[in-house]
Design brief:
Helix Hairpins; mainly alpha; two-stranded antiparallel ribbon; 2 domains; elongated
Length: about 140
């Protein structure tokens, strides 16, 4: 059986089909390998180190302040108030729409807008969890 297979490979009439399929297999594996090791886009720099938040005030927002101070809400704000304040602040300070940062990704204004947006996200998450806990009890 084995000899027949080897002889069929050596047979010039069947040679084309064997090499065609091995070439397809090789190119497929090469394509998968190229996709696997492709250059990946950089991870979003939307995270802010805690050290950057220490005593940092950017555009009038104290990034290390209490969550209700960052959002400009009372401590006992409702979920709807928190959502509205979050949307309004993100429309103003998101790095992709901030007037001084648009068109200059990686610039100083863009990085400041990024820090502000991260502080707003943290404040929203913390206040939402507090509001939901109060709502349950």
């Amino acid at each position: 059986m084995r000899l027949e297979w080897l002889q069929s490979i050596r047979n010039p009439e069947k040679l084309g089909s064997f090499f065609y399929w091995t070439e397809l297999l090789f190119l497929g594996l090469l394509g998968v390998g190229a996709w696997w090791f492709r250059p990946k886009p950089p991870v979003s720099g939307f995270r802010v180190r805690e050290a950057d938040l220490q005593n940092k005030k950017v555009e009038g927002i104290n990034l290390s302040g209490q969550p209700h101070e960052i959002l400009g809400l009372p401590e006992d704000a409702t979920v709807q108030q928190i959502g509205r304040a979050y949307r309004d602040l993100m429309k103003k300070y998101h790095p992709d729409v901030h007037p001084h940062a648009v068109g200059y990704p990686g610039g100083a204004a863009w990085k400041d807008a990024q820090r502000i947006a991260e502080a707003i996200n943290r404040a929203k998450a913390e206040m939402m969890s507090r509001a939901r806990l109060k709502k349950k009890s």
